[in-house]
């Protein structure tokens, strides 16, 4: 549900938004959409946001320059630290 709210808010601000609900779908969309910014849920099914971030950086045209923003409902301190230090 929060995904639709976030999408609507970004679209109201004038951004073009593509949504994927799992890592493999996100990789496929990013390969044709070529976003400047990607909001990645750390707790994605199939492939978590950390793995997705690495694959975007390595395998998608423009991925090395793409801004990646971690989104999570996880509240553990270790999750917060990892989101700040890994491939973001």
Summarize the SSE layout with pairings.
Elements: H1 2-12, H2 23-33, E1 37-41, H3 49-59, E2 67-71, H4 77-85
Parallel strand pairs: 1-2
Task: Give a description of the structure.
With 88 residues, this protein is mainly alpha-helical. It has a single domain (24-85), classed as 3-Layer(aba) Sandwich (Rossmann fold), CATH 3.40.50. Helix content is 48%, strand content 11%. The protein has four helices and two strands; from the N terminus they run ααβαβα. Strands 1-2 form a two-stranded parallel ribbon. The longest helix is centred in the first third of the chain and has 11 residues, at 2-12. The chain is globular, with a radius of gyration of 13 Å.
Quick summary of this structure?
This protein is mainly alpha-helical and 88 residues long. The protein has helices at 2-12, 23-33, 49-59, 77-85; strands at residues 37-41, 67-71. Helix 2 runs parallel beside helix 3 (49-59).
